Amino acid sequence: MTMSIFMKIVALSLLEPVIDQNLYFLGMKYTTATFAAAMTNIIPAITFFMAYILRIEKIKIRSIRSQAKVVGTLVTVSGAMVMTLMKGASLGSLGTHVDNNHNQLHNSGTNIQHTIKGTIMIITGCFSWSCFVIIQSITLDAYPAELSLTSLICLLGSIEGAVVAMIMERGNSSVWFVKWDIKLVAIIYSGIVGSGLAYYVQGVVMQTKGPVFVTAFSPLCMIIVAILSSIILAEQLFLGRVIGAIIIVLGLYLVVWGKSKDHNTRPIAKDPILVEKQNSEEGNERMEHCNEEVITIGSSGVRITTQD
Fold first, then answer.
1. pTM for the complete prediction?
2. In whole angstroms, what is the distance from residue 227 CA to residue 216 CA?
3. Is residue 222 within 8 Å of residue 245, measured between CB atoms?
4. Which of 118, 269, 275, 297 could cross-link to 144 by cystine, CB 3.0-4.6 Å?
5. Ramachandran quadrant class, 171 (left: phi over 0; alpha: psi -120 to 50; beta: rest)
6. Nearest CA to 217 among 251, 187, 258?
7. Residue 298, H or E segment
8. Distance between CA atoms of 298 and 290, rounded to whole angstroms?
9. How many whole angstroms separate alpha carbon 48 and alpha carbon 56?
10. Nearest to 269 by CA among 207, 209, 205, 199
11. In 197-238, where does DSSP find H-type helix?
12. 305, β-bridge pairs
């Protein structure tokens, strides 16, 4: 591992586990879970723009596949905005237990300053996530080991996150005590699924499809949150969310179709050890073939025969 690769891994661990997750959770605290999930839908647009600027994603205006990717990204983001801004008629809830006390208390205690502060935090976190995806794509070109890269990112991110927590929570030792409650479940889930599994899976997909394809599925979070919140939290399901979900699915279909027609997909980097082993085996086969040839020099001239 070179110093350049190590510095990229340090940047990755600082962007995603530390900056993005902390700002996202703080922003969710000042706003709502649905609003935070809706704001993450700007990630595909930011990533698409950054990938185009850095020449990671090639766009040909006259190409149908390129048009499908651009239009699909815009349609996906538009569908997410429809889910956020448009309510429409209430379709009821999928849950049986309705408890609106938490939402009423939260809304009554939320003012415009907290909303603006939370929005800025969430947008900054989304930008950090887009930068993380782009840098991860660049790092995988030089260090094509998804599992090892994920482990290093999580390890360095844990160290950096602990340092940030000690600075921000100095003098408040109670935050370090972990209890057997829903907070512990959230911590474990965020570490295993939200970080480790997510980094590895998107790294594997990114090797062949690129960062734009990976982030195109971010708006699905809105659909999943809407369904789970209706079942678990018994939140009302509105017609606008259903329409927005349909638009998101259509946009994702365009993006996936455009990427499937993209024949200039990024090749998977080969392991240098395997390449050297393959070249060595090919060389041995050529040597064995040469050893089977017998050169006979006689009065009639030179004759080359091959032994079976």
1. 0.70
2. 20
3. yes
4. 269
5. left
6. 251
7. strand 293-298
8. 21
9. 9
10. 207
11. 198-209, 211-215, 220-232
12. 294
Rounded to the nearest angstrom, the gap between the alpha carbon of residue 87 and the centroid of all alpha carbons in its chain is 29
Neighbours of 265 (CB within 10 A): 13
CA distance linking residue 131 with residue 133, whole number of Å: 5
Distance CA 230, CA 33 (A): 13
Q: Which two tokens stand for residue 33?
A: 């879970």
Q: How many CB atoms lie within 10 A of CB 164?
A: 14
Q: What is the pLDDT of residues 138-149, one digit of tens each?
A: 999 888 888 899
Q: Give tens-digit pLDDT for 42-89.
A: 888 888 888 888 888 777 777 887 888 888 888 877 877 777 677 777
In the chain, where the domains are located = 3-269, 273-306
**Which contiguous run of DSSP H or E holds residue 146?**
helix 146-168
Cα 300 to chain center, whole Å?
A: 73
